Amino acid sequence: MEFNKGQADEFVEFWNKHGITCKIRPMVSWGGDIEAPNLIKGLERIPCYWGMNVFVVTDTGDVAICPCDVDCTIKVDSIVDKSIEEVWNTSLKKFRDLHRSHEWDKLPEKCVKCMDWQSGYSEYK
Fold first, then answer.
1. Among residues 100, 53, 107, 61, which one has the least CA distance to residue 84?
2. What is the mean pLDDT of the chain?
3. Integer Cα distance of 7 and 105 in angstroms
4. Which of 18, 33, 40, 50 is 20 to 30 A removed from 71 (C-alpha atoms)?
């Protein structure tokens, strides 16, 4: 974040001394909800790390599209009557397939406008 980005080198140095590799990722906008001036418009889009790898369940069993959708504005499915495996291999698979085939315009509007996929450009130090 803006207020602590100057601490990154010290943070990495501290943890590296303890044999731990750090992951430094671009600041995200939480699905466009906050300003993230470091995100670059026009950058070649890649599949979203979170959309491809993360399973988000709310306290009511609803499955959100990704952790950046903190209010679950895009309910993908529910694990109330389905297993996690079933949702991962059906509803979320369709979403992942759109990413793999670069069909960005077929994603939900929030995802089309989101630039948080740039977190996939994380650096390991």
1. 61
2. 90
3. 37
4. 40
Q: Is the pLDDT of residue 87 over 80?
A: yes
Q: Note the pLDDT tens digit of each residue in 52-77.
A: 889 999 999 999 998 888 889 999 99
Q: Is 56 exposed, middle or buried (0-12, 13-18, 19+ CB in 10 A)?
A: middle
100 Cβ contact partners less than 8 Å away, ≥ 6 residues apart: 47
Q: Is residue 55 a contact partner of residue 92, using CB atoms and an 8 Å limit? A: yes
Location of structure tokens 């906008």: 29
Q: Write the burial class of residue 78 (CB in 10 Å: 0-12 exposed, 13-18 middle, 19+ buried).
A: middle
8 A C-beta contact, residue 114 and residue 32? yes
